[in-house]
């Protein structure tokens, strides 16, 4: 006898999605892992069923969930929309530690587009 998962109610789904969002935003989970958790914990669907809902092959969904392959942003957006989510920017480091100022002028910078010439080495 298998254990039957009950479908979460609206409030439970909201809490599950919030937890998955936090896990992804904090960097603890990859996008693929987060999508897999959304599929399993929110819908309870197997890969074949969910892939069909998203107009994807099962293999394509598997590759997304395992962070393999190279899905388009449109594909990721279509999956996330099923859960009321969108793809967005998340700070990888605290914004207060990001420096957007010009580098100091005493730092030697290569000329843009210039290729340094190789020095002739005599043999």
UniProtKB/TrEMBL annotation:
Gene3D superfamilies: lambda repressor-like DNA-binding domains (1.10.260.40). This is XRE family transcriptional regulator. SUPFAM superfamilies: lambda repressor-like DNA-binding domains (SSF47413). Residues 35-90 form the HTH cro/C1-type domain. It comes from Stutzerimonas degradans. GO terms for molecular function: DNA binding. InterPro entries: Cro/C1-type_HTH, Lambda_DNA-bd_dom_sf. Signal peptide: none annotated. PROSITE patterns: HTH_CROC1. Residues 97-123 are annotated as: Disordered. Pfam families: HTH_3.
């Amino acid at each position: 006898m298998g254990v039957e998962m009950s479908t979460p109610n609206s409030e439970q789904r909201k809490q599950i999605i919030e937890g998955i969002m936090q896990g992804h935003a904090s960097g603890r989970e990859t996008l693929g892992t987060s999508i897999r958790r959304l599929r399993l914990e929110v819908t309870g669907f197997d890969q074949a069923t969910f892939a069909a809902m998203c107009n994807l092959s099962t293999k394509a969904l598997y590759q997304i969930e395992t962070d393999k392959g190279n899905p388009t942003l449109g594909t990721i957006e279509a999956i996330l929309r099923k859960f009321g989510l969108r793809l967005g920017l998340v700070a990888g480091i605290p914004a207060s530690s990001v420096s957007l100022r010009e580098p100091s002028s005493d730092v030697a910078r290569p000329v843009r587009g210039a290729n340094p010439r190789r020095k002739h080495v005599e043999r």
